[in-house]
Each structure stands twice: as structure tokens, then as C-alpha cells.
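Our preliminary data section would be incomplete without showing what the modeling component actually yields. Below, a chain of 116 amino acids is followed by its predicted structure, encoded as C-alpha cells that our downstream tools consume directly.
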Amino acid sequence: QVQLVESGGGLVQAGGSLRLSCAASGSIFDIRGMSWYRQTPGNERELVAAITNGGSTNYADSVKGRFAISRGNAKNTVYLQMNSLKPEDTAVYYCYASLLGLLSSWGQGTQVTVSS
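Predicted structure:
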């Protein structure tokens, strides 16, 4: 099993920046890729950004050019640098790991609130 713990959420004004971190523990060698999702009340969780073990990245159109996903040197940490934040970026952000054997793991989520 892999456990994920997010940190770095908070309240920021529009135009500001935040950096989210997600630390993985447990069977980290089973991790194939890591992603960030976000969810607002009444809506489904949506993919924000993803990164594979090889370093390939993928972004939602709404965050391209503003957000950047990266992995730490030890590969058990993933970051989401969020710049030029907008009120519509307000959501609970979740870390996600895809694992061997089509398994997956979710973090507990961290709240990001962007005020106008």
C-alpha cells in the first residue's frame, strides 16, 4: 500500500501563488505515476496535472501555463506549483498515485481558496 499526505493549501488572493506538496510512503516502488486532482462541492473530481515516472506531464486546459507539476529527487514526492491563481481555482486538491496492478491511492485532500 501507498499512503499520500498533501500539504501547502491555504488562502491566497487572486494573482498569487501556492505550492502544494504530496509525500508518499509505504510501497513507493509500486508508483507508476502521480497526479493532482481537484473537486468543488457538487462536482466530480477533475484532473489538474499528471506526471509519469519518466517525467512526461499532462495538464488540464484551464491550468496550462499557470501550474507546473514536478517530482522530487527521491520520486516519492510530487509538487504542484500554482501561479496566477484565479477564484475558479478554489477547490479541495487531492494527490493521486497510480500503482502497479491497476491499483491506486488517494491523499486526504488540501483546501485551496483564492479570494477575488
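The chain has a mean pLDDT of 95. The radius of gyration is 13 Å. Preliminary results of this kind motivate Aim 1 of the renewal.
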